[in-house]
Design brief:
Number of helices: 4
Strand order of the largest sheet: 1-3-2
CATH superfamily: Winged helix-like DNA-binding domain superfamily/Winged helix DNA-binding domain
Number of strands: 3
Strand content: 5-15%
Distance between the termini: 34 Å
Order of helices and strands: HEHHEEH
Largest sheet: 3 strands, antiparallel
Number of domains: 1
Shape: elongated
CATH architecture: Orthogonal Bundle
Helix content: 55-70%
Structural class: alpha+beta
């Protein structure tokens, strides 16, 4: 597994919650939105286990809705717990990314 894949695996829940927070989406649509945001490594096969886990943890809910083309689709929306989790992940990411960027960009950090 590449470093990029390992990093993405740890951040994917937050990315998925972020997309769903903006509007209800179904799995394939979610995958395309993540790819459009620059996460090219995220396939549908990666998304569905994440959605299942987030739903099991009550961070999202799924509801079947008719599709304009083809069979019904399961649309996912954020729960209150999911919104809280997204806020926590966002705050943690800000703190972690600042420190990592400082170190990787060679800024002088004295203890």
């Amino acid at each position: 597994m590449s470093i990029r894949s390992q990093l993405l695996k740890g951040l994917l829940d937050g990315c998925v919650l972020s997309v769903i927070s903006k509007e209800p989406v179904y799995g394939y649509e979610l995958s395309k939105k993540l790819q459009a945001a620059g996460l090219k490594d995220v396939s549908e096969g990666t998304i569905y286990p994440v959605l299942l886990r987030l739903q099991k943890n009550r961070l999202i809910t799924g509801q079947m809705k008719p599709s304009e083309s083809g069979p019904n689709r399961k649309y996912y929306t954020l729960t209150e717990e999911g919104l809280d989790a997204l806020e926590m992940i966002s705050k943690e990411w800000e703190q972690i990314s600042f420190g990592v960027n400082s170190l990787l960009k060679g800024r002088n950090i004295d203890a």
